[in-house]
Design a protein that fits this description.
Blueprint (H helix, E strand, L loop, with lengths): L1 H30 L15 E4 L2 E3 L4 E10 L4 E4 L4 E4 L7 E3 L2 E5 L6 E4 L26 E3 L5 E5 L1 E4 L7 H4 L10 E3 L5 E5 L2 E3 L6 E11 L2 E3 L9 E12 L2 E3 L6 E3 L12 E5 L2 E3 L15 E2 L4 E5 L2 E3 L6 E2 L10 E4 L2 E3 L3 H4 L6 H4 L41 E3 L20 E4 L50
Parallel strand pairs: 1-3, 2-4, 3-5, 3-6, 4-7, 5-8, 6-9, 7-10, 8-11, 9-12, 10-13, 11-14, 12-15, 13-15, 14-16, 15-17, 16-18, 17-19, 17-20, 18-21, 19-22, 20-23, 21-24, 22-25, 23-26, 24-27
Antiparallel strand pairs: 28-29
């Protein structure tokens, strides 16, 4: 009997062991994706037509005709890749499948048109600036593109006219260096640079987005925003450095939303927006942050320096005002025309923005006692140059002999805050990101950075923008 009990106990232990091993194996299969085989794309010939697979780290690829990533296919671009567009006829990348640009801080991806000389000196003529002309078309996502992930990638000189092939990817009339239009898709733009464009450097018509820690420089000839999002776009836009946009930093609208889709709602926080709005052709437009037709969201902790207008809550057609929250934004002006539009007027800018006591400067410092929403005002001279954010090295105050429109790129400036900056500790952290996209090193956002305690895109704890 004793032997039988021992035998039975041993049998139970063996069953438990094999059951545990199987359970562990099953769990592992569920939690760990199978390795994705690398199908290398050759760098020995110029590329055009249907392309899928992987551009290998450190290699240089040449594109001499429109490249198309077909539905169901993927294009993976590894760290350190350089892509050169060539030829007198503008070409681009059309994406119906997945695009993964996986650059790193040490080895970013570069997408450019070689041989173009930048004219970034202050006061250069926009009419002859190659950054505003467009040498290649852009990365154009179709409405069936499920995922576009762009990390640590420098994109420059895009925005040239769409070819007949790429026009089939988008209903937009204008070309854009980056375009995404799948209302059910995921778009991530992080730690990247967008330099130059004819219109918006980035247009998005619906989808879940996360755009964090990017730098946007000198985009738009006579119009264009760092982010122009419409048609049910939801997500986060934070820790971006924006300088010299033709119109705004981020603009959000709900125009063209599909029936039954969610309304556009983006949380725009901890951005630094400098010298924007001065190439905008239409009067009463341009400046910093716009909420337009049917769009809601948040705007907190933004550092708005010498922009043509402060935050615009547009009245015609009206934004989703019940679902817009904003405050704790920091304004600086070297010009009376800028200070007079910290709160844009209804008569000049079809705007119904409110004065917020949490903003700097406080409304009482520049608004008359009888001021009402939308009314024009004349700011006192004492407001000019007040509340200097104290960049390590920035165009504040404006250098003698220059106009605000003259400074449109980062150049040798350093927009990190000095340790004595009054912007440090002045932010609001009582909200969270929307976090609509997954966090994933490959197929999502690397990090969805929470609101920071310091105003602007650079944080004293080293978080935020890494450029």
């Amino acid at each position: 009997m004793k032997f039988s009990l021992q035998l039975l106990a041993s049998f139970i232990i063996i069953i438990f062991f094999f059951s545990s091993c199987k359970k562990e194996k099953d769990n592992k299969d569920l939690s760990e994706a199978a390795p994705i085989p690398v199908v290398a794309i050759t760098d020995s010939v110029c590329l055009s037509g249907s392309v899928s697979g992987t551009m290998l780290a450190g290699k240089t690829y040449t594109i001499c005709g429109d490249v198309v990533v077909k539905q169901g296919d993927s294009l993976v671009i590894q760290e350190g890749v350089k892509i050169n567009f060539t030829g007198s006829v503008p070409t681009g990348i059309g994406v119906q499948g997945k695009l993964l640009c996986l650059g790193t801080k040490e080895k970013p991806i570069i997408i450019t048109y070689p041989g173009v000389i930048k004219t970034d000196q202050p006061g250069s003529d926009p009419n002859t600036d190659p950054a505003l002309k467009g040498k290649w078309t852009g990365i154009i996502g179709g409405t069936n593109c499920p995922m576009m992930i762009i990390k640590w990638t420098r994109i420059e000189f895009g925005g040239a006219a769409l070819s007949p092939t790429l026009k089939t990817f988008t209903g937009a009339a204008s070309p854009y260096p980056v375009y995404f239009a799948n209302p059910n898709g995921i778009f991530v733009l992080e730690d990247s640079w967008l330099y130059g464009s004819v219109d918006d450097p980035w247009r998005i018509n619906g989808g879940k987005i996360c755009a964090m820690r990017n730098t946007f420089e000198k985009c738009g000839f006579t119009g264009g925003e760092a982010m122009n999002a419409k048609a049910g776009t939801i997500g986060d836009f934070a820790y971006n450095l924006i300088i010299g946009m033709a119109t705004n930093g981020p603009k959000l609208s709900n125009v063209n939303v599909l029936p039954g889709a969610v309304s556009s709602n983006v949380r725009m926080y901890n951005n630094t927006i400098v010298n924007c709005g001065y190439r905008r052709a239409a009067a009463g437009r341009g400046g910093s942050i716009n909420f337009e037709e049917g769009a809601g969201g948040m705007a907190y902790n933004n550092l708005i320096v010498n922009c043509k207008f402060g935050i615009r809550i547009v009245s015609q057609p009206i934004a989703d005002t019940p679902n817009i929250k904003y405050g704790y934004n920091w304004y600086y002006a070297d010009s009376a025309s800028v200070a007079n539009q910290f709160i844009p007027s209804l008569a000049i800018s079809t705007c119904i923005s409110q004065a917020k006591e949490t903003d700097v400067p406080k409304p009482a410092a520049y608004l008359p006692l009888a001021w009402t929403i939308g009314a024009t005002y004349t700011a006192p001279a004492a407001i000019l140059g007040a509340n200097n954010p104290q960049f390590v090295n920035g165009p504040v105050p404006l250098p003698t002999g220059l106009l605000l429109r003259d400074i449109a790129v980062v150049g040798n400036y350093n927009f990190v805050l000095k340790s004595t900056s009054p912007c440090i500790g002045a932010g609001f952290t009582g909200f969270a990101p929307r976090a609509d996209v997954p966090v994933d090193l490959r197929n999502g956002a690397t990090e969805i950075t929470a609101p920071g305690k310091d105003i602007g895109c650079y944080q004293s704890n080293g978080r935020g923008n890494q450029h």
